[in-house]
Amino acid sequence: MRHLPLAFSLLTAAAAATPLAAENRIDGQAPNAPALAAYGDLPIGVRRIDLVHENQIDIVGIDPAAGASADLPRYDRPLTVEVWYPAVAGATGETSLDVYLRDGITEVALEGRAVRDAAAADSAEPLPLVIMSHGYPGNRFLMAELAENLASKGYVVASIDHTDSTYRSQAAFGSTLVNRTLDQLFVLDEMERLNADANSGLAGLIDTRHTGLIGYSMGGYGAIVTAGGGLSEAAMGWAPANTLAIHEQGSETHAAMADPRIKTAVAIAPWGMNYGLWEAEGLAAIDVPMLFIAGSDDRTAGYETGVRAIWEGATGVDRSLLTLEGGGHHVVAPIPAPEESHALGVADHYIDPLWDQVFTNNIGQHFVTAWLDIELKGDTGKAPYLDLVEKGDDGVWSVNEDGSVNPDHSYWFGFEEGAAAGLRYEVLAAAEDPAPVPLPASVWLIGLACGALGSAGRKRRRAA
Q1: 93: domain CATH number?
Q2: Looking at the domain assignment, is residue 455 inside a domain?
Q3: Helix axis angle, 144-151 relative to 357-377, nearest 10°?
Q4: Contact at 8 Å (CB) between 291 and 373?
Q5: How many domains does the chain have?
Q6: Which tens digits make up the pLDDT trace of 188-233?
Q7: pTM for this structure?
Q8: Residue 149 belongs to what domain range?
Q9: Which end of the chain is more exposed for a tag (fewer CB within 10 A), N or C?
Q10: 303 DSSP 8-state letter
Q11: By C-alpha distance, which of 332, 333, 322, 330 is closest to 346?
């Protein structure tokens, strides 16, 4: 297992036999964790918010034979959101999170640092908002380790339970594709409403004008669409009654969803490119800087024809790609596998067979912190953490005993010697003349099989 020496493995195995292992901690720090993985100085609170998005199309209730002109069923769509935020100093109380595992039946406790329903900090200035979206299926706690870490550094993090897409509500796949972006934008509006509500407990705390998106897997799909990446015509067949047409590239409906409050997005193992959901036009319309994170052996979202192709195709913006060599779909994002998940046979949903999950959680915390601090807070002091030689293995460690570095030192800033092995960080700037994204023949065949109709319209643009 990468970055997990034998002695540490033995210690971990011994700890598994003690009651401490059953705590399922989400705040772990590996011995060689990069610098920005460390928690910030702020106390953390967490609270649940129940929202209702009224009068939405009920994708699950649509007759599969219904045409685009059919009178589609509607419903009031419930959404549960978990919000992590900086809390008042000295806050005490419950710090466990009751969550359902991948089986959708077993409920377990996660242990973190956030205090349930703690009073929010009295911040001198409102804090940037991060909207977080899980995979399919998943839930609002799947990236809890990243959410509370960011909250300790001065962010308000709203993590969504996407109805029809959680472990307990998993339903029609088309609902997930249609609703991800709609859910994200609705939650953004609701967080702005709560910020203005003197009785919300979050009044004055949230700066929605500086919002970032973080999405994992299907959540990454949603982040890309919300960031401007309109879907291909071939993708329209993935949902009934042409309901995906609102997200089609170049359509007026997709253009109308552009929201200037969203300043950046982070997509971890985003799903969809390997099934033809985007093509060159849609990816070139992404209009906020993006950080992509992926394992090079991702067999769910794909790498060369998946995440990497999205990164290459987002030619309209500055974007970066962090690759974990040999990593699979679950590397970086999910919480460490809860102890109970092993006996239930669902631990593979949370772990990577090659990389240690706590360490990769720390890698994610490090890079996401640097990225968001720059993009949402304007903290240029974090730039050295992203100014790196491409391959971690190629960095030269040249440090003197007193800690001073020599001119030939080029190791990744913030990483201990050897800790960047197997990592690759690449940067592409916005191109004035975007090159088309080559798609494999299999993608075009899928597109032909879908045979969907789309709608035409103007290209999407986001205001500055």
Answers
A1: 3.40.50.1820
A2: no
A3: 40
A4: no
A5: 1
A6: 999 999 999 999 999 999 999 999 999 999 999 999 999 999 999 9
A7: 0.89
A8: 6-450
A9: C
A10: I
A11: 330
